[in-house]
Structure formats: structure tokens, C-alpha cells
Amino acid sequence: MKLVVIDACVRGPQSRTWRVAREVIEALSHRYEVVQFHLPAMKMEPLSPSALSDRNLCGVVPQWARDAATQIASADRILVAAPFWDMSFPSCLKVFIEHTSLLGITFDTDDRKCYGLCRCTKLLYITTRGMDIPTGDPLDGGTSYLRALSQLWGLGEVEVLSCRNMDYGTPAQIEGKIQEAVLKGREIAKTF
């Protein structure tokens, strides 16, 4: 069984989101082959008009994007680790999705509607939010986006593990929230 990890934690090991995610990934690594994409290191460019034209008209897709899309399509589970930034998530995640949302690999169409080609049945979205914004709130653009993507790609259930109000409190309180999320994540990992 394969787990694809999409890591959009720009601050690397110092990221509060990554601190939670790495513990959950460790728990899952005993049951899954883990394929990981560390997006900040990939130095991706947003799709330009010429790149989009090449892709749509000529089928020209960078090999890394085709390979990543194939890994995603064949994953049994997907874990997205992305901090809450500007009411959503870091732009590297959106750019990665733009490049890997490939007709005939992650989704297809019957010329009236799109449908997913991925075999994944569960996606786990791990995030930390500096503000006190609950999951599903209209201000939480990341969760709604990933749920919409799940519909397009056919990823199945989207489960969210989040810590919120992380920018307010003492260091001990913030650490307590991280450790509480790690415990919840390990519980999720048992059935994920």
C-alpha cells in the first residue's frame, strides 16, 4: 500500500504543521510505502500561458509533473501537510496541484463532466492555524479547496487534523496544542 505525502511546510523542521505531520507519517510508515514531495524544494513555476498552451494543445508536460501525478493517481492514501497562510495554504501547494492535475492521469472527462481517476479513498489534511478559525469556517479556504479537489480527482473522504489559535498563548500552551494534535494524529493513523 502506498501513502503519498505532499509537504507544503515552507519553514521545514521549524514548521508547527510539520512537527505534527512527521509524527503521523512515522506512525503510517509501518503500514505504507511512503512517497514524499517536499514542495518548497521543488522550485516550481506557476503555469504560464505558453506552458498551459503547450500542455493543452500539444500534450507537453514536464516529466516531474507527469511522474508526480502518476504517483498520486496510484496512491492508496494521501497526506497533505500545509500551514494556514493567507486564509488558505502556501502557494507552492496550489502550483503543485496545477501541474499535477492532468487529464487522463488524475482525472478525465466525458465532455459533460469531470471524474476522478485516483484510487485513493482517504486524504488527511494536517494544518496549523495562527488564528482562531475552525475547520469548515468560510475563512478556511484550504479545507474547502482540498474537498473540491477530492471531487475532481476522486480522492475520497477528506479528514482534517488542525491546531488553531497557535499565534496566541504561552510557549507551553502552544506546545501543548502540538502534542494534543500529535496524539490525535496517531489515533487517526490506526485506521487511516
3D architecture notes:
The chain has 192 residues and is of the alpha/beta class. Helices cover 41% and strands 19% of the residues. The protein has helices at 16-28, 49-58, 63-73, 91-100, 141-153, 171-191, and strands at 2-7, 33-38, 77-81, 107-109, 114-116, 122-128, 157-163. The strands form 2 sheets. The protein has a 5-stranded parallel beta sheet with strand order 2-1-3-6-7, with helices on both faces. Helix 1 links the parallel strand 1 and strand 2 (33-38). Helix 1 packs parallel to helix 6 (171-191). The longest helix is centred in the C-terminal third of the chain and has 21 residues, at 171-191. It is globular, with a radius of gyration of 17 Å. The termini are close together.
Write the layout of secondary structure elements.
Elements: E1 2-7, H1 16-28, E2 33-38, H2 49-58, H3 63-73, E3 77-81, H4 91-100, E4 107-109, E5 114-116, E6 122-128, H5 141-153, E7 157-163, H6 171-191
Parallel strand pairs: 1-2, 1-3, 3-6, 6-7
Antiparallel strand pairs: 4-5
Helix pairs in contact: 1-6
Number of strands: 7
- In round numbers, the mean pLDDT is 96
Q: Strand sequence of the main sheet, in spatial order?
A: 2-1-3-6-7
Rg calc: 17 Å
The biggest sheet, with number of strands, parallel, antiparallel or mixed sense and barrel status, is: 5 strands, parallel
What is the helical fraction, as a range of percent? 40-55%
Assess the beta-strand content as a share of residues. 15-25%
Query: How many helical stretches?
Result: 6
